[in-house]
Amino acid sequence: MSKIRVVHYINQFYGGIGGEEKADYKPEVRTEVVGPGLALTQNFGDEAEIVATIICGDSYFNENTDEALSTILKMVEEHKPDLFIAGPAFNAGRYGMACGAVCKAINEKGIKTVTAMYEENPGLDSFKKDTYILPTGNSAASMRKAAPALAKFAIKLAKGEMTGSADTEGYFPRGIRKNVFVEQRGSTRAVNMLLNKINGKKFTTEYAMPTFDNVEPGKAIKDLSKAKIAIVTSGGIVPKNNPDKVESSSASKYGSYDFTGMNDLTSETFETAHGGYDPVYANDDSDRVVPVDVLRQLEKDGVIGSLHNIFYSTTGNGTSVANSKAFASEFTQDLLSAGVDAVILTST
Amino acid sequence: MVKEIERSGIPVVHICTVVPISLTVGANRIVPAIAIPHPLGDADLSKEDEYKVRMNIVKKSLEALTIDVTEQTVFEL
Q1: Whole-prediction pTM value?
Q2: Is the ipTM of this complex over 0.85?
Q3: B77: distance to nearest CA of chain A, Å?
C-alpha cells in the first residue's frame, strides 16, 4: 500500500523563518519536511509521509484571513493529500486560530484534517466543531508527547478508523452525537446514573449541558461628557524597563500605572513587555496600544468627562484564563471605587 | 478580563485586531483595530494621519459605549 500523503501547516516560528518580526510572512509551500514535521515523520513509520509543508506568519494569517486561506487552499490542493495536519499550536493564540481556520476550510474540500493545541487556546472553542483537535501542553516543551499522539491519531483518521468517542480516541469533544448500540437501555442507564449521584459516586453523563459563561452587556453610557473612562490592555504596555517585571508571556501579574499629568506615552517613558508580537511599533509609541494621547484630547475637548489616571496592563500572551480573571477582578475593585463609568480594553 | 470587568456592571469596549478571538472570549462590544503589533496606529502613515486613525477608532469605541446592546456586537469603522 502506498503511503498516506500528508500536507503539514506550521507558522513562521516553527518554519524557521523568524519570530514576531516575521509574523507578517506570507504563505509559502515547500516540498519537504520542516520543523515539527520531523517529529511527526519519525512517528509515521512507513505508513505516512509529509509531501509538502506550508509555512505562514501568524499575524499575516489573522490580519488577512480570506486571502491567506485562498492561497493555502490552492497550495494544499496541488499536493492532493489524503490528510492535512496543522500545528501543534500549543497555547499560541493566533497560531491556534490559524490552524483551526485552515483545517476547517480544507475539511470543507473533503480532505480529513487534524490539529492540536492547549485547552485554553482560543482556536479550540472557535473550531472544535469543524475539525479534530487533540490536546497538548501549553508550550512547545510538550512537543515530545504531542508529536507521537498527533502522528498516531492522523494515521488512524486517514485510514477511516476513527470510530470511538472523543474520550476514547483522545480528541476534544466536537459536539457531534453518533448513534451506537449499547447493552443497557436508556432508562436503566439513567437510573444507574441517578443512584450513583445520590450515593455520591462518580457517574458520566451522556449528554453534557453546554456551559455558557456569557456576561450581560454593561448598560450604555447616557452622557459621555460626564463619564469617567479607564484604559485596560492585554498588550503589555509598561513604564520603561518594566518595573514590575510583568512576564513577556504566561503572565502571573499585571501592573497599574499612573499617568497623571501625561498627555502622551513616548518611547522614553513606556514600552511593551509583551513577547507575542513584534514590539518595534509599541516601543516607538505606546499610544498605538494605550491611546492616552487621543483620550487626553477628548478629555480636554469635553467629549468625555474625564480619563481615569491609571491604566492596567498585562501581557495576554499565553496567560491563563484563571490568571486573567483574577487580575481583572482585583483591579475592577479599583475601577469601581474610582467611579469609572466605562472601560476601553485594547488587545494586540 | 473583558468579562470579569463587565460582570461588575461597568461596560467594556474591546478594541482588537483578531475579532474572532474577541467573540470567542465573550466581549459584548467589539471595535476592530488596525494590526496586531499596532492596534491603534500605523507606522506607515505620517504622525498626523496616524493620530487621526487612532482618534477615529477611539471615537468609534466611545460611541459603542453609548449604544445599548443585547448580544455581542461588532462596531465596524
Answers
A1: 0.79
A2: yes
A3: 16
Chain B residue with minimum CA distance to A101: B20
Model pLDDT for residues A35-61, shown as the tens digit of each residue: 999 999 999 999 999 999 999 999 999
How far apart are the CA of B43 and the nearest CA of chain A, in angstroms? 7
Residue B41 has pLDDT above 70, yes or no: yes
A 10 A CB-CB count for A80 gives 11
Asked if A295 is an interface residue toward chain B (Cβ–Cβ < 8 A), one would say yes
Three-state SS sequence of A219-235: CCCCCHHHCEEEEEECE
Q: Which residues contact residue B72 at a Cβ distance below 8 angstroms, ignoring those fewer than 6 apart? A: B23, B26, B27, B28, B30
Closest chain B residue by Cα to residue A214: B26
Does residue A94 contact residue A64 with C-beta atoms inside 8 Å?
no
Contact predicate B66/A221, CB 8 Å: yes
